[in-house]
Amino acid sequence: MWSIVQAAGWPIWPLIFASVVALALIFERLWSLRQSVVAPPGLVDRVLTEYRANGASPEFIGRVAQQGPLGRILATGLANVKSPRAVIKESIEEVGRIVTHDLERFLTTLGTIAAMAPLLGLFGTVIGMIEIFGSQTAGGSNPLQLAHGISVALYNTAFGLIVAIPSMIFYRHFRATIDGLVVEMEQQAIKLVDFAHGERH
Predict the structure, then answer these.
(1) CA gap 34, 191 in Å, rounded
(2) How far is CA 60 from CA 51, 75, 81, in A?
(3) Which residue has the higher pLDDT, 5 or 94?
(4) What does the pLDDT read at residue 201?
(5) How many angstroms separate the CA atoms of 61 and 10, rounded?
(6) Region 58-72: what's the mean pLDDT?
(7) CA 174 from centroid of its chain's CA atoms
(8) What's the mean pLDDT when you consider all of the chain?
């Protein structure tokens, strides 16, 4: 591995740094966006059961709000349960936007790495081409410098793509996951409010 880094030259270091950051962000988001963390299964049923038994007391709403992003949305619905349905839906969607912003944390950085990695690879390629042209002198070419220039150009191009492709795949995957989770959470919160209003049984 070290021999590849040496062959790729100094332009590879920004790409190595970007790859480490991208890998850390991917693992962090995979851990944070688990269904059991964002929208625990059965939470709506448990909240509805307790609401039917004890009503929407401030203590109950506070406990629900601590149950992750879904809990925050459900708590908003419960806090406004006596308001008109349009007001409740608007408040749920407003909190949904805040939750979405929290869930999208670090995604901008990951998307930036996905976009910049090929450019960093291209930069390394240009440096390699400069070395290739620099190896040509009036007395002929320097084989060692020529070979090093080719290594720098090819390794940086390849490594830029190796970093960019997984970063873009996971960036789009996380965006789609978050959109799906937020829509599901808002629907569950509205369903809870409908039950509380006695519109569904």
Answers:
(1) 22
(2) 8, 9, 13
(3) 94
(4) 42
(5) 56
(6) 88
(7) 5
(8) 85
Q: Is 77 exposed, middle or buried (0-12, 13-18, 19+ CB in 10 A)?
A: buried
Burial class (CB in 10 A: 0-12, 13-18, 19+), 49: exposed
pLDDT digits (tens, 9 = 90+) for 67-111: 889 889 888 888 888 888 788 888 888 988 899 899 998 999 999
User: Which two tokens mark 113?
Assistant: 């790495």
**14 has a pLDDT exceeding 80:** yes
User: Are the beta carbons of 161 and 121 closer than 8 angstroms?
Assistant: yes
Query: Pairing mode, if any, of strands 140-141 and 136-137?
Result: antiparallel
Structure tokens at 159: 């490594």
Distance, CA of 73 to CA of 189 (rounded, Å): 6
Token representation of residue 162: 């190796």
DSSP state of 136: E
Judge residue 198's burial from the number of C-beta atoms within 10 Å of its C-beta, 0-12 exposed, 13-18 middle, 19 or more buried.
Answer: exposed
Pair of tokens at residue 69: 């992003």
Give the pLDDT of residue 11. Answer: 79
Q: Do 156 and 127 contact (CB within 8 A), yes or no?
A: yes
- Closest among 19, 24, 23 to 5, alpha carbons compared: 19
